[in-house]
Amino acid sequence: MSLSTVSRVMNGNGTVDTDLAERVLEASKALNYSASPLARSLVLGKTFTVAFVLPDLANPTFQGALRGVSRAAAKDGYRVLIADTGEVVSEESILALETRRRCDAVILCAPRMSEERLRELLPQLEPAVLINRDVLGTSAPVAAADYRSGIVELLMHLVGLGHRRVTFLAGAHNSASNRHRQLGIEEVVRAHPDLVVTEVACGVTFADGHGAAAAVAASDATAVMAFNDLVAMGLLSGLGEAGVRVPEQLSVAGFDDIPFAQYTTPPLTTVSVPVTELGEQAWLRLRALLDGEAPDHNVYFRPRLEVRGSTAAPQAVDA
To answer: Please, are residues 225 and 169 in contact by the beta-carbon 8 Å criterion?
Structure first.
Protein backbone atom coordinates (compact mmCIF):
# COMPACT_ATOMS: atom_id res chain seq x y z
CA MET A 1 0.00 0.00 0.00
CA SER A 2 1.10 3.59 -0.47
CA LEU A 3 3.11 5.65 2.01
CA SER A 4 0.31 8.22 2.11
CA THR A 5 -2.19 5.56 3.21
CA VAL A 6 0.10 4.38 6.01
CA SER A 7 0.70 7.98 7.04
CA ARG A 8 -3.01 8.70 7.27
CA VAL A 9 -3.59 5.62 9.41
CA MET A 10 -0.72 6.37 11.78
CA ASN A 11 -1.96 9.95 12.20
CA GLY A 12 -5.49 8.83 13.00
CA ASN A 13 -7.07 10.04 9.77
CA GLY A 14 -10.55 8.46 9.57
CA THR A 15 -10.75 8.55 5.76
CA VAL A 16 -8.94 5.21 5.37
CA ASP A 17 -11.04 2.05 4.93
CA THR A 18 -11.49 0.27 8.28
CA ASP A 19 -10.14 -3.10 7.12
CA LEU A 20 -7.14 -1.46 5.51
CA ALA A 21 -6.44 0.61 8.62
CA GLU A 22 -6.53 -2.53 10.78
CA ARG A 23 -3.99 -4.23 8.49
CA VAL A 24 -1.65 -1.23 8.82
CA LEU A 25 -1.95 -1.16 12.60
CA GLU A 26 -1.37 -4.93 12.86
CA ALA A 27 1.73 -4.63 10.68
CA SER A 28 3.08 -1.70 12.69
CA LYS A 29 2.57 -3.67 15.90
CA ALA A 30 4.35 -6.73 14.49
CA LEU A 31 7.25 -4.56 13.31
CA ASN A 32 7.33 -2.58 16.57
CA TYR A 33 7.00 0.54 14.43
CA SER A 34 6.16 4.02 15.63
CA ALA A 35 5.96 7.23 13.68
CA SER A 36 8.99 9.52 13.78
CA PRO A 37 8.18 12.78 15.59
CA LEU A 38 10.89 14.53 13.59
CA ALA A 39 9.46 13.40 10.26
CA ARG A 40 5.97 14.36 11.39
CA SER A 41 7.23 17.80 12.37
CA LEU A 42 8.83 18.31 8.96
CA VAL A 43 5.65 17.34 7.13
CA LEU A 44 3.27 19.35 9.30
CA GLY A 45 5.58 22.31 9.88
CA LYS A 46 5.12 21.92 13.65
CA THR A 47 7.40 20.68 16.41
CA PHE A 48 4.66 20.12 18.99
CA THR A 49 7.08 21.70 21.45
CA VAL A 50 6.83 25.04 23.25
CA ALA A 51 9.57 26.91 25.06
CA PHE A 52 9.36 27.95 28.71
CA VAL A 53 11.83 30.74 29.50
CA LEU A 54 12.31 31.45 33.22
CA PRO A 55 14.75 33.37 35.45
CA ASP A 56 15.83 30.56 37.78
CA LEU A 57 14.89 26.88 37.60
CA ALA A 58 15.99 26.38 41.23
CA ASN A 59 13.16 28.63 42.43
CA PRO A 60 10.19 26.49 43.57
CA THR A 61 7.74 29.17 42.45
CA PHE A 62 8.90 28.91 38.84
CA GLN A 63 9.02 25.12 39.16
CA GLY A 64 5.34 25.18 40.11
CA ALA A 65 4.40 27.28 37.09
CA LEU A 66 6.46 24.98 34.85
CA ARG A 67 4.70 21.95 36.31
CA GLY A 68 1.32 23.46 35.49
CA VAL A 69 2.34 24.22 31.90
CA SER A 70 4.02 20.84 31.33
CA ARG A 71 1.13 18.75 32.60
CA ALA A 72 -1.50 20.71 30.70
CA ALA A 73 0.57 20.73 27.50
CA ALA A 74 1.22 16.98 27.70
CA LYS A 75 -2.52 16.30 27.68
CA ASP A 76 -2.67 18.10 24.32
CA GLY A 77 0.31 16.23 22.88
CA TYR A 78 2.90 18.97 23.39
CA ARG A 79 6.24 18.94 25.17
CA VAL A 80 8.04 21.79 26.90
CA LEU A 81 11.62 22.95 26.26
CA ILE A 82 13.08 24.76 29.29
CA ALA A 83 15.43 27.73 29.03
CA ASP A 84 16.91 29.06 32.30
CA THR A 85 18.37 32.58 32.12
CA GLY A 86 20.05 32.33 35.54
CA GLU A 87 18.73 35.80 36.46
CA VAL A 88 20.93 37.31 33.73
CA VAL A 89 18.71 39.90 32.06
CA SER A 90 20.84 40.16 28.94
CA GLU A 91 20.31 36.45 28.27
CA GLU A 92 16.50 36.62 28.26
CA SER A 93 15.88 37.93 24.77
CA ILE A 94 18.69 35.80 23.31
CA LEU A 95 17.31 32.58 24.78
CA ALA A 96 13.73 33.49 23.91
CA LEU A 97 14.60 34.04 20.26
CA GLU A 98 16.78 30.93 20.02
CA THR A 99 14.18 28.65 21.56
CA ARG A 100 11.42 30.15 19.44
CA ARG A 101 13.30 29.02 16.31
CA ARG A 102 13.13 25.46 17.64
CA CYS A 103 9.57 25.54 18.98
CA ASP A 104 6.05 26.45 17.97
CA ALA A 105 5.57 29.09 20.68
CA VAL A 106 7.10 30.65 23.81
CA ILE A 107 5.97 31.20 27.39
CA LEU A 108 7.92 33.91 29.20
CA CYS A 109 7.77 33.43 32.96
CA ALA A 110 8.47 36.57 35.04
CA PRO A 111 10.85 38.14 32.49
CA ARG A 112 13.20 40.71 34.03
CA MET A 113 13.86 42.78 30.90
CA SER A 114 12.59 46.33 30.59
CA GLU A 115 9.07 47.00 29.39
CA GLU A 116 10.44 48.70 26.28
CA ARG A 117 12.57 45.68 25.36
CA LEU A 118 9.76 43.25 26.08
CA ARG A 119 7.32 45.21 23.93
CA GLU A 120 9.87 45.14 21.10
CA LEU A 121 10.55 41.41 21.52
CA LEU A 122 7.05 39.95 21.76
CA PRO A 123 6.08 40.37 18.05
CA GLN A 124 9.17 38.32 17.14
CA LEU A 125 8.09 35.49 19.43
CA GLU A 126 4.42 35.15 18.47
CA PRO A 127 2.61 33.15 19.54
CA ALA A 128 3.72 33.98 23.08
CA VAL A 129 2.18 34.14 26.54
CA LEU A 130 3.37 35.92 29.69
CA ILE A 131 3.33 34.62 33.26
CA ASN A 132 3.56 37.20 36.07
CA ARG A 133 4.28 40.07 33.73
CA ASP A 134 2.05 42.27 31.62
CA VAL A 135 2.95 44.95 29.14
CA LEU A 136 0.71 47.74 27.93
CA GLY A 137 0.22 47.95 24.19
CA THR A 138 0.80 44.26 23.41
CA SER A 139 -1.61 41.47 22.56
CA ALA A 140 0.25 38.69 24.40
CA PRO A 141 -2.10 36.93 26.85
CA VAL A 142 -1.23 37.12 30.55
CA ALA A 143 -1.63 34.81 33.55
CA ALA A 144 -0.40 36.51 36.70
CA ALA A 145 -0.74 36.87 40.45
CA ASP A 146 -1.84 40.15 42.01
CA TYR A 147 1.29 40.75 44.07
CA ARG A 148 0.17 44.21 45.09
CA SER A 149 -2.96 42.99 46.87
CA GLY A 150 -0.97 40.12 48.40
CA ILE A 151 1.62 42.36 50.04
CA VAL A 152 -1.12 44.74 51.20
CA GLU A 153 -2.88 41.90 53.01
CA LEU A 154 0.39 40.70 54.54
CA LEU A 155 1.42 44.15 55.75
CA MET A 156 -2.04 44.80 57.17
CA HIS A 157 -1.70 41.54 59.10
CA LEU A 158 1.49 42.88 60.68
CA VAL A 159 -0.11 46.26 61.36
CA GLY A 160 -3.02 44.48 63.02
CA LEU A 161 -0.59 42.68 65.32
CA GLY A 162 0.81 46.05 66.39
CA HIS A 163 3.97 46.33 64.28
CA ARG A 164 4.93 49.86 63.25
CA ARG A 165 8.58 49.35 62.26
CA VAL A 166 8.84 46.88 59.41
CA THR A 167 11.69 45.94 57.08
CA PHE A 168 11.05 44.81 53.51
CA LEU A 169 13.82 42.67 51.99
CA ALA A 170 13.42 43.60 48.33
CA GLY A 171 13.93 41.19 45.44
CA ALA A 172 15.58 41.74 42.07
CA HIS A 173 15.37 45.44 41.23
CA ASN A 174 14.20 44.67 37.68
CA SER A 175 11.47 42.29 38.82
CA ALA A 176 7.97 43.49 37.95
CA SER A 177 6.50 41.58 40.89
CA ASN A 178 8.95 43.36 43.21
CA ARG A 179 7.65 46.69 41.92
CA HIS A 180 4.06 45.58 42.52
CA ARG A 181 5.03 44.74 46.10
CA GLN A 182 6.56 48.19 46.52
CA LEU A 183 3.37 49.83 45.26
CA GLY A 184 1.31 47.83 47.75
CA ILE A 185 3.60 48.83 50.61
CA GLU A 186 3.33 52.50 49.60
CA GLU A 187 -0.46 52.18 49.65
CA VAL A 188 -0.50 50.87 53.22
CA VAL A 189 2.05 53.42 54.45
CA ARG A 190 -0.07 56.27 53.08
CA ALA A 191 -3.04 54.97 55.05
CA HIS A 192 -1.02 54.56 58.28
CA PRO A 193 1.18 57.63 58.99
CA ASP A 194 2.67 55.96 62.09
CA LEU A 195 3.96 53.02 60.03
CA VAL A 196 7.57 52.98 58.85
CA VAL A 197 8.63 50.41 56.27
CA THR A 198 12.35 50.37 55.49
CA GLU A 199 13.38 48.73 52.25
CA VAL A 200 16.65 46.81 52.17
CA ALA A 201 18.10 45.57 48.87
CA CYS A 202 18.42 41.83 49.23
CA GLY A 203 17.71 39.36 46.40
CA VAL A 204 15.70 36.24 45.68
CA THR A 205 17.66 33.30 47.12
CA PHE A 206 18.11 31.49 50.42
CA ALA A 207 21.69 32.79 50.60
CA ASP A 208 20.47 36.38 50.11
CA GLY A 209 18.15 36.07 53.08
CA HIS A 210 20.82 34.46 55.22
CA GLY A 211 23.22 37.25 54.34
CA ALA A 212 20.72 39.91 55.44
CA ALA A 213 20.27 38.46 58.93
CA ALA A 214 22.96 40.54 60.64
CA ALA A 215 21.62 43.83 59.31
CA VAL A 216 18.04 42.88 60.18
CA ALA A 217 19.01 41.83 63.71
CA ALA A 218 20.82 45.14 64.26
CA SER A 219 17.86 47.24 63.07
CA ASP A 220 14.97 48.51 65.18
CA ALA A 221 12.39 46.61 63.10
CA THR A 222 9.91 44.39 64.91
CA ALA A 223 8.86 42.56 61.73
CA VAL A 224 10.38 41.63 58.38
CA MET A 225 8.68 40.90 55.06
CA ALA A 226 10.87 38.96 52.66
CA PHE A 227 10.47 39.17 48.88
CA ASN A 228 9.79 35.45 48.77
CA ASP A 229 9.84 32.35 50.95
CA LEU A 230 13.39 31.39 49.98
CA VAL A 231 14.68 34.72 51.30
CA ALA A 232 12.52 34.36 54.44
CA MET A 233 13.84 30.85 55.08
CA GLY A 234 17.43 32.01 54.68
CA LEU A 235 16.70 34.85 57.08
CA LEU A 236 15.23 32.44 59.64
CA SER A 237 18.41 30.39 59.47
CA GLY A 238 20.64 33.42 59.92
CA LEU A 239 18.57 34.81 62.78
CA GLY A 240 18.68 31.43 64.52
CA GLU A 241 22.47 31.43 64.30
CA ALA A 242 22.51 34.95 65.78
CA GLY A 243 20.31 33.93 68.69
CA VAL A 244 17.31 36.01 67.60
CA ARG A 245 14.04 34.33 68.58
CA VAL A 246 11.23 34.29 66.00
CA PRO A 247 8.53 35.51 66.52
CA GLU A 248 9.23 36.56 70.15
CA GLN A 249 11.89 39.13 69.21
CA LEU A 250 11.20 39.52 65.51
CA SER A 251 8.33 38.48 63.24
CA VAL A 252 9.25 37.11 59.82
CA ALA A 253 6.97 36.67 56.80
CA GLY A 254 7.58 35.37 53.30
CA PHE A 255 5.71 35.32 50.01
CA ASP A 256 4.61 32.53 47.61
CA ASP A 257 3.91 29.67 50.06
CA ILE A 258 6.33 27.20 48.52
CA PRO A 259 5.96 23.57 49.73
CA PHE A 260 8.63 23.96 52.43
CA ALA A 261 7.14 27.08 54.04
CA GLN A 262 4.89 25.26 56.50
CA TYR A 263 7.77 23.07 57.70
CA THR A 264 10.21 25.76 58.82
CA THR A 265 10.80 26.43 62.53
CA PRO A 266 8.56 28.19 63.30
CA PRO A 267 6.18 27.60 60.37
CA LEU A 268 6.35 30.55 58.00
CA THR A 269 3.60 33.12 57.67
CA THR A 270 3.37 33.83 53.96
CA VAL A 271 1.13 34.69 51.03
CA SER A 272 0.00 31.77 48.90
CA VAL A 273 0.22 32.09 45.11
CA PRO A 274 -1.43 29.34 43.00
CA VAL A 275 1.57 28.87 40.72
CA THR A 276 0.47 25.56 39.21
CA GLU A 277 -2.84 27.13 38.18
CA LEU A 278 -0.93 30.05 36.66
CA GLY A 279 0.92 27.58 34.45
CA GLU A 280 -2.28 25.79 33.48
CA GLN A 281 -4.01 29.04 32.55
CA ALA A 282 -0.99 30.17 30.55
CA TRP A 283 -1.14 26.93 28.55
CA LEU A 284 -4.86 27.31 27.83
CA ARG A 285 -4.22 30.71 26.30
CA LEU A 286 -1.22 29.52 24.33
CA ARG A 287 -3.10 26.49 23.01
CA ALA A 288 -5.84 28.80 21.73
CA LEU A 289 -3.22 30.83 19.85
CA LEU A 290 -1.68 27.66 18.40
CA ASP A 291 -5.12 26.62 17.18
CA GLY A 292 -5.70 29.99 15.54
CA GLU A 293 -8.36 30.94 18.07
CA ALA A 294 -8.86 34.00 20.27
CA PRO A 295 -7.51 33.32 23.79
CA ASP A 296 -9.52 33.95 26.94
CA HIS A 297 -9.13 37.25 28.75
CA ASN A 298 -6.07 37.84 30.91
CA VAL A 299 -6.33 36.20 34.31
CA TYR A 300 -5.04 37.60 37.62
CA PHE A 301 -5.07 35.44 40.74
CA ARG A 302 -5.53 37.09 44.13
CA PRO A 303 -3.02 35.57 46.60
CA ARG A 304 -4.20 34.27 49.98
CA LEU A 305 -2.64 35.11 53.35
CA GLU A 306 -1.45 32.06 55.32
CA VAL A 307 -0.90 33.00 58.97
CA ARG A 308 1.47 30.64 60.78
CA GLY A 309 3.83 30.71 63.74
CA SER A 310 6.54 33.09 62.47
CA THR A 311 4.51 36.26 63.16
CA ALA A 312 3.15 37.54 66.45
CA ALA A 313 2.54 40.81 68.31
CA PRO A 314 5.75 42.74 69.05
CA GLN A 315 7.08 42.62 72.58
CA ALA A 316 6.65 46.36 72.94
CA VAL A 317 4.48 48.70 70.87
CA ASP A 318 5.30 52.38 70.55
CA ALA A 319 2.85 54.65 72.31
So the answer is: yes
| Beta-bridge partner residues of 54 | 84
Query: Could you tell me if 56 and 87 are in contact, meaning their C-beta atoms sit under 8 angstroms apart?
Result: yes
Residue 8 binned pLDDT confidence (cut-offs 50, 70, 90): confident
7-19 residues labelled b (16+ CB within 10 A) or e (exposed):
bbbbeeeeebeee
Annotate 219-232 with DSSP letters as a single string. S--SEEEESSHHHH
Q: Which domains does the chain have, with CATH numbers?
A: 3-35 (no CATH), 44-145+275-301 (3.40.50.2300), 147-273 (3.40.50.2300)
Q: Which of 115, 123, 161, 164 is nearest to 140 (CA)?
A: 123
Q: Is 16 helix (H, G, I), strand (E, B) or coil?
A: coil
> Are the CB atoms for 230 and 59 separated by under 8 Å?
yes
Rg (CA), the chain: 24
Task: Point out which residues pair with 142 in neighbouring strands.
Answer: 130
In three-state secondary structure terms, 298 is coil
- φ, ψ of residue 55 in degrees (nearest 5): -75, -30
Q: What are phi and psi of 70, to 5 degrees?
A: -60, -45
Cα gap 126→253, rounded to integer Å: 38
pLDDT tens for residues 244-257?
Answer: 999 999 999 999 99
| Lowest-confidence region among 8-12, 179-183, 239-243 | 8-12
